[in-house]
């Protein structure tokens, strides 16, 4: 709710009028209600954003660096956010960091990343592309229940394609000139590293320039005025905003998503300390399903809002049902069902359901047998 106010900065009546007028902005209302956004940049842009969304469908992007050969559950929040924009009728771009993967984003890290070989980067890019396309396809086939033609296809681009043709001297001379050292040094990702014993390499220090240039490129190519990213991306997003303000007359806007943590304060998405992967070879579909089934009662409502497409009203109904029969773990089942479908499709879900039914039945007949043996039938 706090964010809804922040995002809109308009009176309730103006908002309601706009809400009725525009289909596109409807989605933003829903996303804010769900606690989907942590921050926006510039932080006073609420009414400008609303105006743009009211006027016409917008273009939004988020990037994924190929740091591993699969995305993980932690990446799902950004992916689901992109899908919400797609459902709202907007143009969506998922960017693969085939070039930025060579540099390494220092955000949220305490040490430099180990440089990856080009074959590894290429392989990771292919795997991540496959993860994304599978999720987008599963969403369209099994979760979006309306006319498929209403969903504009999500573009998947690789930033390697535009850096390939850029001359490095030209790049430093043309683009580098727009970055001020003072501002770059103030970024949280730099501050947290620069005074540490290990420090930070120039390579990682320069990362913000590349993410900024990506946005400028996508703005020119696709009129992409929105960028979304994880909670640690504000530094890179604001750097992009600055580059674009200096070099074009267009306004652009960044939105970051909340950091999801468990009750114990750990980053969400780990099981016994290991990442839960989207690739079925790294985490089995059943492992992913079980990960969500194990969600604590105290955390499940928030996760339903952030990670599923149930409306807020439907989530209230799910939670109501839960209060009556907590032992059935109904919200956990809704969460696990929808996310397993999104990541692995409907087939494996049907297998789990059959398996669970069979195991419940065999448990029941075991209990029955034991009762009969002990004379309690
Ligand atoms: N830096 C982002 C990934 C990214 C890469 C390139 C971009 O243009 C945008 C985002 C991250 O690590 O999550």
TrEMBL record:
<comment type="similarity">
    <text>Belongs to the class-I aminoacyl-tRNA synthetase family.</text>
</comment>
<keyword id="KW-0547">Nucleotide-binding</keyword>
<keyword id="KW-0067">ATP-binding</keyword>
<dbReference type="InterPro" id="IPR002305">
    <property type="entry name" value="aa-tRNA-synth_Ic"/>
</dbReference>
<dbReference type="GO" id="GO:0004831">
    <property type="term" value="F:tyrosine-tRNA ligase activity"/>
</dbReference>
<dbReference type="InterPro" id="IPR024088">
    <property type="entry name" value="Tyr-tRNA-ligase_bac-type"/>
</dbReference>
<protein>
    <recommendedName>
        <fullName>Tyrosine--tRNA ligase</fullName>
        <ecNumber>6.1.1.1</ecNumber>
    </recommendedName>
</protein>
<dbReference type="Pfam" id="PF00579">
    <property type="entry name" value="tRNA-synt_1b"/>
</dbReference>
<dbReference type="GO" id="GO:0005829">
    <property type="term" value="C:cytosol"/>
</dbReference>
<dbReference type="InterPro" id="IPR001412">
    <property type="entry name" value="aa-tRNA-synth_I_CS"/>
</dbReference>
<dbReference type="GO" id="GO:0005524">
    <property type="term" value="F:ATP binding"/>
</dbReference>
<dbReference type="InterPro" id="IPR002307">
    <property type="entry name" value="Tyr-tRNA-ligase"/>
</dbReference>
<keyword id="KW-0030">Aminoacyl-tRNA synthetase</keyword>
<keyword id="KW-0436">Ligase</keyword>
<keyword id="KW-0648">Protein biosynthesis</keyword>
<dbReference type="GO" id="GO:0005739">
    <property type="term" value="C:mitochondrion"/>
</dbReference>
<dbReference type="GO" id="GO:0006437">
    <property type="term" value="P:tyrosyl-tRNA aminoacylation"/>
</dbReference>
<dbReference type="InterPro" id="IPR014729">
    <property type="entry name" value="Rossmann-like_a/b/a_fold"/>
</dbReference>
């Amino acid at each position: 709710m706090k964010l809804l106010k922040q995002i809109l900065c308009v009176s309730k009546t103006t908002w309601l009028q706009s809400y009725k007028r525009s289909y596109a902005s409807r989605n933003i209302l829903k996303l804010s209600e769900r606690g989907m956004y942590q921050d926006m940049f510039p932080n006073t842009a609420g009414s400008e954003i609303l105006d743009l969304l009211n006027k016409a469908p917008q273009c939004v992007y988020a990037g994924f660096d190929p740091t591993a050969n699969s995305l993980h559950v932690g990446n799902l929040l950004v992916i689901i956010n992109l899908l919400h924009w797609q459902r709202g009728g907007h143009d969506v771009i998922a960017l693969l960091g085939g070039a930025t993967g060579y540099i390494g984003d220092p955000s949220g890290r305490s040490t430099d990343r180990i440089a990856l070989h080009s074959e590894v980067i290429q392989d990771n890019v292919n795997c991540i592309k496959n993860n994304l396309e599978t999720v987008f396809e599963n969403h369209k086939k099994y979760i979006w229940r309306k006319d498929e033609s209403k969903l504009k296809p999500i573009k998947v681009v690789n930033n390697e394609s535009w850096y390939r043709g850029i001359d490095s001297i030209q790049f430093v001379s043309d683009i580098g000139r727009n970055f001020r050292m003072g501002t770059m040094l103030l970024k949280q990702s730099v501050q947290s590293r620069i005074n540490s014993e290990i420090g930070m390499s120039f390579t990682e220090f320069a990362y913000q320039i590349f993410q900024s240039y990506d946005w400028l490129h996508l703005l020119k190519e696709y009129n992409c005025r929105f960028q979304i990213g994880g909670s640690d991306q504000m530094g890179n997003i604001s750097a992009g905003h600055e580059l674009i303000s200096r070099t074009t007359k267009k306004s652009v806007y960044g939105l970051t998503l909340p950091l999801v943590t468990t009750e114990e304060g750990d980053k969400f998405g780990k099981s016994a300390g290991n990442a839960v992967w989207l690739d079925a070879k790294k985490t089995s579909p059943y492992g992913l399903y079980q990960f969500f089934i194990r969600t604590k009662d105290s955390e499940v409502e928030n996760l339903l809002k952030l990670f599923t497409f149930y409306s807020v009203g439907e989530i209230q109904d799910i939670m109501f049902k839960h209060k009556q029969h907590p032992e059935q773990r109904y919200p956990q089942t809704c969460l696990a069902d929808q996310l397993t479908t999104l990541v692995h499709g409907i087939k494996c879900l049907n297998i789990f359901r059959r398996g669970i039914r069979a195991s419940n039945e065999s448990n029941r007949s075991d209990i029955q047998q034991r009762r009969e043996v002990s004379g309690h039938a």
